[in-house]
Amino acid sequence: MTYSFPLFDLPPEAILHVLKSMDYGELIFISLLSERAKRAVESMNLYCIEASAVISNQISLVMDFDGTRVELRFTVDKERENQENGSLELPDKMELSISTSRSIEKWIGKGSCIKRWITHFNAGFHFSKFDCLQFDENASLFDIKELQIMFYSYDQLCILSDNGSDVKSILKHFPTRRLSFDNDVFNNLENPHPVLIQNYDELVIDPLFESPNTLQLDDLLIINSKIIEIYNMNWAEKELNRFLKHWMKGSNPRMERLSIYFFSQETLNNSKILKGIKYVEMPVEHTRWFKSCKGFEAVRGGHDFNRCDGTKATLTIRTNGICMLEMHVWYPHCVVEVREIEN
After folding, report:
1. Looking at per-residue confidence, does 210 or 281 come out higher?
2. Bridge partners of 230?
3. Where in this chain does the record put each F-box domain (predicted)?
4. Which end of the chain, N or C, is more open, meaning fewer C-beta atoms within 10 Å of its C-beta?
């Protein structure tokens, strides 16, 4: 037999002790009971590890905690979804799903706006912005300006929609320093170059399905981002060699790190990639630390070479399960000092 007791009749210290024995799913349900319950959960100083929002023909908010995933899925009914004229209002039908290692709990409600839920979790679980704001297919069902008001704080913008006009509208209303888009987006833009020349901190081009990337050498040469990540590339050593020589002459002046993941699993030939380039091969055990907007990372071994202004770069090739090429450019602000590592 189990017995219930009035939790909030206990002294504050006892309430906190009981709450600490609960998992995240239980704490979320407790926080929804009342304003006092919400404040009690807030006082525990719990933090969401990662939060993201996904917009398609529904709107999903996903929050990851230690061992728990919380997803709020807001949907519209089929009748409204199939309307032909105008944008849909933001949905108010919500399904809350809490997944832990032990169970999955669901709760369905209606009538509470998305903004109120975002505010609730912002306060209760201390996150001030979404790590990723993602636009999928059919995101244009909703009023872009309403979405802009709702999702104004995020770290990375991800676009998977293959509608060129939608992409232009998204980029206009949702400025970002970090952009990731599916290769189909790139193909469906009338002119992708205005996107590629933007001064992003990070640009990722990743085909959604297992198909080769269509990015050409001329496209890569005009990218003006600090961090560039390209997936499913099908270039041969000759194209890579041409890119390196263009960089040595002055192309991509803002680039700090380039990562290329190849579609083929065939091992790349270093000699062909570096043909005609003066370089120094570093010992594998030689480790240097590189600093970018994404943090510190170790660069082990590789081939060092210089551009026309004396700036040094290191080229490394990895083949652990997937063939990839990385290029780190050693600008003074990218070099990690010993004291920074110690701290």
Report:
1. 281
2. 205, 260
3. 4-47
4. N
